[in-house]
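--- STAGE predict ---
source: upstream dedup step, 1 unique chain passed
mode: sequence only
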Amino acid sequence: MTDFQPAYLETKEKGLLRDKISKARQLLNSCEICPRACKADRFSGELGECSTGDEAIVSSFNPHFGEEPPLVGAFGSGTIFFSHCNLKCNFCQNYEISHDGEGEECGLGQLAGMMLILQNNGCHNINFVTPTHVVPQILSALDMAIDGGLRIPLVYNSSGYDKVETLKLLEGVIDIYMPDFKFWDPAVAEQTCKAPDYPEVARKAVAEMYRQVGDLQVDENGIATRGLLLRHLVMPSGMAGTAEVMSFIANHVSKNTFVNIMDQYRPCGKAYEVKGLGETISETEFNKAVQAAKDAEISRFAAL
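--- STAGE serialize ---
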């Protein structure tokens, strides 16, 4: 990435990063960082919906080779997996992390150090997994990491249940947004996540992410440097509403959006509590989802 400069360097140079950090940390007093808006005083030890206080909890950090090819390259995506989640899908494949909170509290210096270790290991990016509820901590640690020499793209890898106001604090900071767009039907979102507003929130969040970074851009080696990369998990019995999601992306975001249509669904966590979620998806269901993307004239998609 000889000519690449991550957005956060200019933001810090202009003195804007400190202002973003201040605004984000103020939100912890009566937390409204995510759409749950539970108003927990996280500075005082109240945990709220995300079960996370003033310090982020990290389950692991490592070069990851199972992400999308534009992120992985030859040396992996530098993933930092945050524990807990503001969405808490009942079928989550990482239930022990997202619901049970496996991991350890991580100070800002430790978090900055993780970013630098991953960069020094050759990772092509820093990939924040489930970052929505720890945006203030990420921004604060980033300030320290930049001083330590961080120079690779940042990836915001979220469930899509993100508040636009919080995303705006990340403008000029995040280079690559990689949200899920999980469900189109509010009833399904209520059954699986107790978040009937998820479809509306995700539509607004994805549109804001795209406004900030545009279509996915890659360098001469095919490694992503900036832009939107969308994930969509195919679910049994059409519960994800794939055709509607693809139509929205094509008509209201961009037909040039890089979309990863995923076939990895399997019943995990408490999936069996919801009718239909106890099944795996069939090859026919997956092929139908891929065809929906083609019918919507999505021009860049992977089927993994």
